[in-house]
Design goal:
The protein is α/β, with parallel strands linked by helices and 385 residues long. The protein has two domains: 143 residues, Aspartate Aminotransferase, domain 1, CATH 3.90.1150.10; 234 residues, Aspartate Aminotransferase, domain 2. 42% of the residues lie in helices and 14% in strands. The strands form three sheets. Strands 2-8-7-6-5-3-4 form a seven-stranded mixed sheet, with helices on both faces. A three-stranded antiparallel sheet has the order 9-12-11. A two-stranded parallel ribbon has the order 1-10. Helix 6 links the parallel strand 3 and strand 4.
């Protein structure tokens, strides 16, 4: 595959197109209610900001170990032990400048040209693009509303072949806000034990409101974990993530990381250490606030005729079925933006299985969400006339 062909295969991230148009409207004087972007509206906790200042004052502004600060990797190991009861050697942890580089590194060591990776449909919009970038093929596994937007293991097996190199799971999930049942995770872990690694995207762990999330490492050590600080600690702009890998892949990952990135930002790493050790109360405050918003938005969407058959119990998203209003979620999202001045995410961003759905983010204030719901209700009322 030529470089040009490879880049042409990468699709736009449509939510960003919605955001960019919303920003144009804002520059023209419109007041937009942003329910499209999955970014916490909170600032990073004070302990995080203070740790960053202390790191700069102390001169901790140089390269770190390519795997990340030993102190931070130890703290991540301790966090997984405390939350999930699993033992993770800090030497199996690679700190990265955000979770996206971790994903790139992971797929790079797993895949070659002609290989494939199994991903959920609908699922996070960037998975297929990362897979295509390393010249592999994303294999879509339908996750249906009637199944709680969760994998059926039989459907996973149906698309596997000898060139399958991994299956991606995302629980809590984007765009669905749902949690994978433990029995499904256990069944998928059996595939890992049989030779098909799991890549578990755990970036929304800690943002759960009903029940609890499980780490894939509770079921198998033949798995990669993608995680970071952006969502749980409201540290999106700090660009700090990490990859937990089976030991045998670490030499290749380390070598690739040294060449591509050298290391993650030193100041951000010291800030991440403070987040893990000192920000528990801040996280709980944010989590409780998200839950209040979740319950309010869920009720409003259902009241106005948008079906939410599967209650989202985690992350900060609601994926609503809008098929009674549209068969073109992208056109619908832009129409809502232009006429109601509310930013929403088209379901088609998340794969063919997302068409006809709209994703709403409640990472915004309750006041803004209330106004956004009022505007959307008027918009839908006008559609029905």
């Amino acid at each position: 595959m030529s470089p040009l062909t490879r880049f042409e295969a990468i699709k736009p991230f449509y939510v960003m197109s919605v955001l960019e148009r919303a920003q144009e409207l804002e520059r023209q004087g419109a007041r937009i209610v942003h329910l499209e972007i999955g970014e916490p509206d909170f600032d990073a906790p004070a302990c995080v900001r203070e740790a960053a200042c202390r790191a700069m004052d102390a001169g901790h502004t140089h390269y770190t170990h390519s795997l990340g600060l030993p102190e931070l990797r130890q703290a991540i190991s301790e966090d997984y032990a405390a939350r999930y009861g699993v033992s993770v050697d800090p030497e199996r942890i690679l700190v990265t400048s955000g979770t996206s580089p971790a994903m790139l590194l992971c797929f790079s060591v797993l895949c070659g040209a002609g290989d494939n990776v199994l991903i959920p449909d609908p699922g996070y919009a960037c998975y297929p693009n990362f897979i295509r970038f390393v010249c592999a093929e994303p294999r879509l596994v339908p996750v249906r509303e009637e199944d709680g937007f969760q994998y059926q293991v039989s459907a996973v097996r149906a698309v596997m072949d000898e060139r399958s190199r991994a299956v991606v799971i995302n629980s809590p999930g984007n765009p669905t806000g749902t949690i994978m049942p433990s029995d499904t995770m256990a069944a998928l872990a059996e595939l890992a034990e049989q030779g098909l690694p799991i890549v578990s995207d755990e970036i929304y762990h800690g943002l759960t409101y009903v029940g609890r999330e499980r780490s894939i490492l509770e079921f198998t050590d033949k798995a990669f974990v993608l995680n970071g600080f952006s969502k749980l600690y409201a540290m999106t702009g700090w660009r700090l993530g990490y990859l937990i890998s089976p030991e045998r892949y670490m030499p290749a990952l380390r070598k690739l990381a040294q060449n591509l990135f050298i290391c993650a930002g030193s100041v951000a790493q010291w800030a991440g250490l403070a987040a893990l050790r000192k920000a528990a109360a801040d996280v709980e405050r944010m989590r409780a606030t998200y839950d209040e918003r979740r319950r309010y938005m869920l009720g409003r969407l259902r009241d106005m005729g948008l079906t939410v058959a599967v209650e989202p119990t985690s992350a900060f998203y609601i994926l609503a079925n809008a098929k009674r209003f549209t068969s073109d979620s992208l056109a619908f999202a832009f129409d809502v933006l232009e006429k109601a001045h509310v930013g929403v995410t088209p379901g088609m961003d998340f794969g063919p299985g997302g068409e006809g759905y709209i994703r709403f983010s409640y990472a915004n204030s309750l006041e803004n969400i209330r106004e956004g719901m009022d505007r959307l209700e008027r918009y839908l009322s006008d559609l029905g006339r």
